[in-house]
């Protein structure tokens, strides 16, 4: 009996447990139909960079399947049962999705399939250890990262999934009565001047091998330096499952250096945040700490202007602007800058973290609900294992410390290209003042820091 493999955030052929479950029924091999559903509920809120990258990943997947990926448009609870019945499948296979919409959608699809006597089989997830599995001795979840990380490592994970057998894809053109989409139809034109990382499993693996061949050994020292190519850039590949984190963890096995250990812990942050969302689904929208929600936040015309300056990378604070312009140029921002620009929006401009998180989700190629919204909450001081609210990043000293020669700023802020060294972080101190074409700071950091702390101190108490 054939089966159907429904691809979602697992756009790869290697280390794919659900694919193997779909392809092999015990010792017997079976034919399967590989399907991706362009679901408006997920496609519509995705900005152009993520859609563009997704379309590229789907093209790459289709190519590695010999042109046999079926892309259809519609609601999964209608499309998947219809396709499965049409090919006479007795099972539909998926990797688990733990995000709030994904869980609701999968429940609806399982029910619709059940009505047709077809089983929805879940094998594996986008994580080394599925959310909800790493628990304290009493079975409860961790609210803080460090003990989670200890327990996560102790729990351990399976080795990458390999079978050695070939798989046999059903030709989608043999399925009648459906409109087959070209991956390019899902893409949206990229904003002018934006260039994205190369999509797909092969490109992701090549990137990963390059990282393993060198940068990983210095990762612990270089990961905070946006002026150096010190991080792996695996986030978009992990987001779409072009690679499974277990593949990365297996490659790190046997490497005992500090770089490998730090890298493992960063992967664990991704798993931790997914675990938090599994436990508290509404934390993707509202603060885990309601006190932060109830604080005084800015709104109105001036707040709108400030927000726009932040989005455009024209706040007059070079390190912040370089980060925001990297987002516009690459659909990606270095982690250090994600923290700095988030802190600036929340604590210098007094805008709620949700506004920034939404903007990031629209523009990031790796936009991931749990990592993004909890990354924002970490900075806002409202999440699990957060920095305290009163930790306000100083964007000038952050720049001087992590971009010591100013190269990162000059790369993304051409108006400051003529300023040498770290002086670029405070152009208002230059003998000739701020170079032409670059704005004066829209707010005074020192004063706004005080203002943020005042609002925090005077916040409504629970
Ligand atoms: P590397 O340093 O090479 O890290 C390797 C991998 O570990 C990353 O690909 C990622 O999967 C994981 N990782 C590293 N740091 C974190 C972290 N702090 N939280 C969760 N996972 C982490 N990451 C996303 O994948 N998607 C997002 O939408 C996202 N939004 C963020 C928003 C804010 C405000 C902040 C502070 C962080 C956010 N992060 C997000 C986490 C982190 O910034 C990115 O994962 C990282 O910059 C991606 O680049 P990289 O792959 O080169 O990272």
UniProtKB/TrEMBL annotation:
Gene Ontology molecular function terms on file: deoxyribodipyrimidine photo-lyase activity; DNA binding; FAD binding
Site-annotated residues for Electron transfer via tryptophanyl radical: 297, 353, 376
Protein name as annotated: Deoxyribodipyrimidine photo-lyase
Binding site for FAD: 219, 231-235, 263, 266-273, 366-368
Keyword Signal: no
Keyword Flavoprotein in record: yes
Lineage: superkingdom: Bacteria
A GO biological-process term: response to light stimulus
Native organism: Nakamurella flavida
Keyword tags: Chromophore, FAD, Flavoprotein
Taxonomic lineage of the native organism: Bacteria, Bacillati, Actinomycetota, Actinomycetes, Nakamurellales
Segments forming domain Photolyase/cryptochrome alpha/beta: 1-128
Membrane-spanning residues: none
Pfam families: DNA_photolyase (PF00875), FAD_binding_7 (PF03441)
Cofactor annotation: FAD
Cited PROSITE patterns: PHR_CRY_ALPHA_BETA (PS51645)
InterPro entries: Crypto/Photolyase_FAD-like_sf, Crypto/Photolyase_N_sf, Cryptochr/Photolyase_FAD-bd, Cryptochrome/DNA_photolyase_1, DNA_photolyase_N, Rossmann-like_a/b/a_fold
Cofactor comment: Binds 1 FAD per subunit.
């Amino acid at each position: 009996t054939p089966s159907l493999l429904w691809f979602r955030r697992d756009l790869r052929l290697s280390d794919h447990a659900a694919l193997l479950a779909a392809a092999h029924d015990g010792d017997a091999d079976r034919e399967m139909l590989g399907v991706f559903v362009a679901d408006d509920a997920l496609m519509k809120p995705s900005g152009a960079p993520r859609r563009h990258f997704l379309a590229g990943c789907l093209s790459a997947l289709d190519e590695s399947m010999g042109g046999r990926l079926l892309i259809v448009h519609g609601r999964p609870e209608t499309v998947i049962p219809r396709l499965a019945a049409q090919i006479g499948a007795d099972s539909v296979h998926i990797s688990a999705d733990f995000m709030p919409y994904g869980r609701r959608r999968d429940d609806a699809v399982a029910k619709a399939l059940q009505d047709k006597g077809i089983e929805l089989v879940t094998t594996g997830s986008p994580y080394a250890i599925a959310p909800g599995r790493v628990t304290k001795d009493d079975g409860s979840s961790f609210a803080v990262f460090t003990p989670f990380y200890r327990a996560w490592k102790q729990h351990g994970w399976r080795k990458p999934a390999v079978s050695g057998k070939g798989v046999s894809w059903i030709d989608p053109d043999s399925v009648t009565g459906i409109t087959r989409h070209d991956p390019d139809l899902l893409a949206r034109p990229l904003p002018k001047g934006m260039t994205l990382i190369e999509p797909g499993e092969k490109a992701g693996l090549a990137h990963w091998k390059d990282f393993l061949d060198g940068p990983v050994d210095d990762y612990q020292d270089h990961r905070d330096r946006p002026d150096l190519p010190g991080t792996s850039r695996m986030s978009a590949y992990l987001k779409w499952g072009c690679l499974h984190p277990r593949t990365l963890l297996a490659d790190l096995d046997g490497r005992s250096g500090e770089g490998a250990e730090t890298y493992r812990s960063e992967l664990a942050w991704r798993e931790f945040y997914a675990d938090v969302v599994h436990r508290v689904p509404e934390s993707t929208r509202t603060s885990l700490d309601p006190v932060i929600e109830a604080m005084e936040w800015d709104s109105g015309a001036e707040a709108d202007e400030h927000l726009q300056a932040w989005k455009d990378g024209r706040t007059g604070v070079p390190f912040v602007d370089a980060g925001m312009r990297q987002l516009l140029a690459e659909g990606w921002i270095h982690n250090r800058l994600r923290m700095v620009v988030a802190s600036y929006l929340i604590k210098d401009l007094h805008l709620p973290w949700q506004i920034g998180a939404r903007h990031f989700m629209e523009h990031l190629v790796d936009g991931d609900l749990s990592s993004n919204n909890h990354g924002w909450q970490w900075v806002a001081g409202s999440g699990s294992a957060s920095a305290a609210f009163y930790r306000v990043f100083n964007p000038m000293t952050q720049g001087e410390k992590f971009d010591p020669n100013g190269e990162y700023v000059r790369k993304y802020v051409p108006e400051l290209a003529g300023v040498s060294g770290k002086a670029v972080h405070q152009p208002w101190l230059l003998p000739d003042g701020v170079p032409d074409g670059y704005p004066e700071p829209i707010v005074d950091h020192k004063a706004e820091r005080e203002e943020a702390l005042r609002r925090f101190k005077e916040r409504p108490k629970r």
